Batch of 4 targets.
Target 1
Amino acid sequence: MKKLNQSWSESTAPTYKSYTLNNFREIPQIKKLPPRQQFEMEVVGNVLPFKTNNYVIEQLINWKNIPDDPIFRLTFPQKEMLRPHHYKEMESALKQDLGTREIQKVANKIRMQLNPHPAGQMEHNVPHLKDGTKLYGMQHKYKETVLFFPSQGQTCHAYCSFCFRWPQFVGMDEFRFAMKESEYLVQYLREHPEVTDVLFTGGDPMIMNARLFSQYVDSLLDANLPNLNTIRIGSKALSYWPYKFLTDGDSDEMLELFSRVTGRGIHLSFMAHFNHPVELSTEAVKIAIRRIRSTGAQIRTQSPVLRHINDNSDTWAQMWKNQVALGLVPYYMFVVRDTGAQHYFGVPLVEAQEIFRDAYQKVSGLCRTVRGPSMSSTPGKIQILGVTDIGAKKAIVMRFLQGRNPDWVQRPFLAKYDEGAIWIDDLEPFAGKQFFYEGELKEMLQSETEKGGQDVSIAGGGPP
Ligand SMILES: *Cc1c(COP(=O)(O)O)cnc(C)c1O
Ligand code: SF4
C-alpha cells in the first residue's frame, strides 16, 4: 500500500468530531441561526436520528444556502420531517420540561407510529444453521447474497434523516440485532454453497476500526470457502468521513485488509452511498477513492431518490458522470421506504421513474450500469420501468431485479396507472385480482412462519 504523502496528511488530517442532539448548539454555524430554528431542530432531533460531524459541516454544507442546502437537509433535522401533530406533541413535551424519561416515552410513542420496521423486515429472512441456531445478525433473502450485520458496525459517521435503519440508532434497543461470532457466518457459508456474496452492512461497517473489521474478514479468508466470490461493504464513509481511508490511525491497515481480500482472488466491492454530487467534490473524497481503488477493490454506488436532495434528473446525471470520471460504477437508484420521514423525502414511483429516465438519457453508456428506480419490498427488488398505454388505459410497467423466488426476475408485469403511489402496496394489478407473484409469496411467508418463525430482523435492502 502506497503511504500517503506526508505533507498532505499532516496539514489536513482533521480529527473526527461528532455532533448530536446533546452538543449541536456548539456548532458555530448553528449558533448563528435564530433560536426558533435551533429549537425546531431539537424537537425533531428528539424523535428522528441526528448525528453529524466536522467534515460534513465544514466541507459539504454550504452555509450560505440554509435551509435549502441538500446536505444540511440530509443530516440536520427539519421541522417538516415530523407531521404537525407529532411535532406539537414533542414540542409541548420539551416546553413542559418533562424530564429525560418522559421525553423518551413521548419519542418512542411517536416513533412507533412511523412504521419502524417496514416491508415485513421484522418477520422475515433471518437464516439459521442446520443445528437450529438462529442468526439474528444475518439476513438471507436472495439466493446468492447474505447480508451480515457486525455488532460493532451498527452506527454511522453521520446519520441520514431519511434512513430506514433509524430504529437502530435511536436506542430502541429491542430492535437492535447483531451477531458477534463470525464463526457462525463461516458455518452458514459452508452449509450454503449457493451463496457467492457476503455483504457487510450496518449501520456502517466502516465505523469499525481496521483491527476489529479484519476479524470478520480474515475469518472468511482463512476459511477458504470455495463458494465465496465477493465481499461487499455497504458504506457511507466516503461521503461522511473519507479520512477513514486517508489519515485516520487505521486507514493504512484498512486498505491493507482490502488488498488482502483482492490478493486472495476474492472480489471486493465497496458499495458506496452517495446522495448528491457535492459529496464527490472534496479533495479528501477524491484521494480516498483513489486509495481504495488502488487496492484492487471496485467501488459501486447507490442512493435513494429523495425530495429536497436529489429529486431532479440533472443532479442524478451529474452524479453518475462524476462517479464514472472517478472510476466508480453506478449501481442502484432506490425508492425511499415507507418509514420515518417518508412524507418529507418520498418521491412517487411515477415521478421517480421520470427522473431516472431523463437522467439516463443524458449520460454515456458507461453510466448506464445503474438500475432503478427500485423498491426493496417484501417480494423482492422491484424496478419501475415506465408508463405505457394498453388500449385506452395507462399502465405502470415493472419487473423484479431480485426476487424471493429467482423465477420472478426479469418478467415485466403491469399495474394500474397511479401518479400518487409511493410503494408497491399502493398499486393495483392492471388486470386480475393480484400480482402474479402474490399467491406464491403468501405461501412462502406462511411456510417460513410455520417452520418456527425463523425470522426477526429490521434490516435489508436499501442503502447503504
Ligand atoms: C439488494 C439486496 C441484496 C443484494 O442484491 P444485488 O442485486 O445482488 O445487489 C441482497 N440482499 C438483500 C436483502 C437486498 O435487499
Ligand atoms: S442511510 Fe446508511 S449512512 Fe445514512 S444513516 Fe442510514 S445506515 Fe447510516
Target 2
Amino acid sequence: MGHREIGLVGVLGAGTMGAGIAQLCARAGAEVLLCDAAEGALAGGLGQIEASLARAVERGASSEAEVAAVRARIRPASSTAELAGIELAIEAVPEVLELKAGLLAALAELEGEPILASNTSSISIAALAERSGAAPRVLGLHFFNPPTAMPLVELISTPRTDPAAVERARAFAERLGKQVVDVQDGPGFLVNRCARPYYLESLRMLEDGFAEPAQIDRVCVEDGGLPLGPFELMDAIGIDVSLAVTSSMWERSYGEPRWRPSPIQVAQVAAGRLGRKSGGGFYAEGTSWRAAPPVAPGLAAAILDRIVANLVNEAAFALSAGVASGPDLERAMVIGLNHPCGPAEWERRWGRDRIVAILDRLWETEHDPRYRVAPLLRGGGIAAAA
Ligand SMILES: NC(=O)c1ccc[n+]([C@@H]2O[C@H](COP(=O)([O-])OP(=O)(O)OC[C@H]3O[C@@H](n4cnc5c(N)ncnc54)[C@H](O)[C@@H]3O)[C@@H](O)[C@H]2O)c1
C-alpha cells in the first residue's frame, strides 16, 4: 500500500539529537519546523546545524547550493501551536516521562493527526502512547548520536500502534538513508540492551580485581576487534549517561541481575568523574590504555571469553523474548555499534559449547544469577534460531 511522502516534519527539542535529526530530515528534502521551549536553545541548535553544514562544504561533501537548500528548509518554532500541518512529529526533549508525555498529548491535538515519534533511549513507548491520548499514532524512532552520521534507526511499535503509521515512519526513516530495525518496546530496546554486557561484565571484572580498565580495553580492541574498549567508551559517552541507561533497565525489569548497575559507576558519578566531559573518568585526561603494558596471553583470553560469552547470552535472552528478529539483531550490533560481527557470528566463531562452558564456570565461581545461561543458548544456540 503506497503512502504519500511526508513533506512537513516537526522536530521538538533543538539539542544534540533534535538539531541533528532536523538537519537529516531537511537533507532528505522534507520541510522542517524545529521547536524548542528554552530561550537560546533554538539558536544553539541552529548554530549546531550551521557548523555541521559548513564542515560538509569544507570537506567537499556538499556544495554551497545544497547547503543553502537544506538551511532554507529548516524553520524555527517556539511552541507546538506553530506546528499546524505537520505530518510527523519527532520529539527529542530531555529524558523525562512527564515532559515527553505532556508534549505528545499537546501534539496529539494538532489538526491532521500527525504521527508522533519519540527518540527516547529508555522510556516505555507504550507508557508514552497511553498518556498521549493518541496511542495508535505513537511509536519510537530511536536515532543514534550523531544522527546525521549513524546509519541505524530502531523503529519501536506497541500493540496499539497503527500498522499504517509504522510503515509510513519506516518509509520516512529509509528516505533519510537509515537502516531500520523493528524492535519491541522494552528496557533498552535492542542495541542498548544487547550492548549492556560490554560495560557491565567489564565493570564486574574490575570489581573482582580480575583485570584493570587498561587491560580490558586493550584486549577488546586488539584481540576482539571492537572499535573502542568499554572503559574508554564509557568515558566518551559519559559515565552518568551509561549509568542512567543501566539503572532504568534494571528498574523497569524489577531487578534483572544481568542489568544490575555497578557500584563503581555510582561512585564515579558521585565523585563527579563523568568521563571526557568532566576532564576525566576511568582515564585521567590525556591518558589511554595504549601507554599501558601488554596483557599476559592467559589473562587476555579469559577477558575476551567473559565479554563474548555475555554478549552472546544477552542476545539469546533478547531473541527468546522477541525483542527483534535474528537477522535484525545481527545487523544492528554491527551497524549500530561497529562490532566486528553480530552475536550469532560470535557464537559460530567461539563455539556454542565453549560459550555455555564459560558461563557455567562463572556461575560456579560467582553464584551470581547474572550468569544463568539463556535456555535458547543451552538448547540449540542463537545461530540455529536466527
Ligand atoms: N544524546 C544522545 O546520545 C542520545 C542518543 C539517542 C537518544 N537520545 C535521546 O534523545 C532525547 C534528547 O536528548 P539530547 O541529548 O538531544 O538532549 P538535550 O538536552 O541536548 O536537548 C533537549 C532539548 O529539548 C528542549 N526542550 C525541553 N523541553 C521542551 C519542550 N517542552 N518543547 C520543546 N523543546 C524542549 C531543551 O531546551 C533542549 O534544547 C532524549 O530522550 C535522549 O534520551 C539521546
Target 3
Amino acid sequence: MGRTRLPDKAWNYCTMVDGKSCHVCCIFCGHTMWGGVSRLKEHLAQKRGDVAECKRCPANVTMEMQEHLIQVSLEKENKQKRKREMLEDMRKKKGQCHSSPQPPPPPPPPQGEVVEEMDEKEKALLDEAIKESLQTHKMEEMKERNEEADLARACLESVQLYEQELLMRQNGSSSRYDYDETDFDIDMNF
Ligand SMILES: [Zn+2]
C-alpha cells in the first residue's frame, strides 16, 4: 500500500502502536487509528469520512498529504483507465472475431407483412410452376418411354413377324418344295 511508495514521509508523522504497522499514532495530536499510514495520511490531509481530522497538524504537512492523496488517486484512476481500455480492446477484438465470420445480416424489408405475403404467394406460384414443369417433364419422359417401348415392341413384333414369316416361308417352302418334290416325284413316278 502507501507504505511502500512513501515509507519515510508518512512514517515520519506517526508511531506504531504495540509494534503493529496497521495501528498508528499521530505525532501531532496523539490520535491513534487503525489502518496504517494510509489512514494517517487521510487524518493529516484533513480528509473527512473514514477518519477524524488532525487538529494539530501543520498546514504544510496537510498540503503535502493532500497532494500525495491526489497523486495516489490519480494513479488509481490511470490504473483503472488502463484496465478499462484493455477490457475495451479485448471486447473490440472479440467483437471483430465474432462479426468477421458471420455474413452481414440481410436488410430488413420496409413493410414486413406485405413483402412476406408477396413472398409466400410468389413461392406458391413458383412451387406450382415447378410441379407443373416436373409433371410435364415426367409426362414427356413417360411419353418418350412409351414411344420407345412402342417402337421397341413394334420392332420386336416386326422382327418376330419377320422371323415367323421366315420360318413359315422356310417351312412352307421346304414343305412345299418337299411336297412339290414328292408331288413331282409322284407325278414323275406316275
Ligand atoms: Zn493528528
Target 4
Amino acid sequence: MKSRVEPTRLRRSPNAEAPRGSGRSPFRKIRRLPGAWRLSVLPLLLLAGACGGVDRFPMTWTEPRSDFARELWGLQQLTNYLGVGVGILVFGILAYIVVRFRWRPGAPEPSQVHGNTRMELAWMLAPALLLAVIAVPTVRIIFSTQEDPPPDALTIDVIAHQWWWEFRYPMAEGDTVITANEVHIPVGRTVHLRLTSADVVHNFWVPQMGGKRYNIPNRINHIIFTPEETGVYLGQCAEFCGESHALMKKRMFVHTPEGFDEWLRNEASPAVEPTDSALIIGQQLTIQNCAACHIIEGTDAQFGRAGPYLTHFARRRTLAAGILDNNAQNLADWIRDPQAFKPGALMPNLGLSEDEIGYIVAYLQTLY
Ligand code: HEC
Ligand SMILES: [Cu+2]
C-alpha cells in the first residue's frame, strides 16, 4: 500500500476549514460516543425527521386523506409494529444470552445447540408465519384497489408529458374539459383516474391520496380512491422521465361538491373575450406565437397539443407544473426563457420583445 490512512489521527488533526467554535456543535456529544452507539443515533434522527407532519413534509403518506392511502398506511403500520416486535424479541434474547453465558473464570462451556432440529424448525416457521400474517392483508388490499369503480365515479384521464400533466374530464355531452398540472376533485366522491403517457414512462403520485402508479404510453392504468378531506395535496412524478423529472409536480385540489361544480362549470366555458384594446393585442400576439402548442378554447388557438391548455390559465395557482407561483413576474420570466427554470423544457424561447411579453402576460392573466 502506498499511503496509509490512519483514521484516528486524521480525525483528530486540526482542520483548517472547520468553522471556529464548531467543536461546540450539538453533534459533539454524538461524535464522542463509541462507534456502535454513534450508529444507533442515525435511526433516531430519521425517526425524528419522520415526525415532522404534513406542514414540513407535504409529500408525506403518513397522514392519509383517502380510503386508498389509509389502507396502505394501515398495512405499513402493521409491518412496522411486527418488525419492532421481532426486533425487541431478538435483541432481548441476544442480550440475555450475552450476559447469561458470558465468559467467567472457571465457568463450564455452555451446552452446544448447533443442529438442534427443534430450534431450527422454530426459527424457520416463526418468520414464515409472520410473513403469512402480512401477506393476507397485502393481497386483500392489492385486490381491493383493483376493483371496478362504482358507476357514479368521477372519471379523469391523466396524460403525462415531459414534464407536465394533462387532465381531461369526459363530460356527459361528449365534451371534454381539459386542464393541466392542477387537478380538481370533489370530496367524498370516488375518483377514477385513467393513466397514460404521451411520451415516456411517468408515474402518478399524490402520497396523501394513495400509492403511485405508472403512466405508460399506449396503455391505461387505473387509480381509484375516494378523497376524505378538502384541501390541496402535493404530488410529483415518481419515475425518472428525463432532464426535468424532478420539476414535474402537480397539485390536487379537493373541493366541497358545490365548489367542484362551480370550478367545472367555469372550466367548461370558453375563454374570456378581451374588451380592452391592449388585451386584444395581447390575444393576437398569443395566437400568433403560441397557438402551435397551446389551445385556448373560444379563440383561434385551436390546434396546438404540445403544451398545456391555457383556456382558464389565470385560475391556476402555479405554472410550469407546479414549480412557480402564477403571477405576472413569473409568467413573464417563464415566457422569456423557459429553460432557465426547467432544463430541457419543451417550450422554446421565442425571442419575443419585452413589449410583446407584456401584452401577452396581461392577456393570459385575464383567462379566468
Ligand atoms: C413549441 C411549443 C410551444 C410554444 C410555441 C409555446 N409553448 Fe408554452 N409550453 C409548451 C410546453 C411543452 C409547456 C410545458 C412545459 C413544462 O411545464 O415542462 C408549456 C408551458 C407553458 C405555460 C405554463 C402552463 C402551466 O399551466 O403550467 C405557459 C403559461 C405557456 N407555456 C405560455 C406560452 C406562451 C404565452 C407562448 C407564446 C408566447 C408559448 N407558451 C409558446 C410548449 C410551447
Ligand atoms: Cu415524469
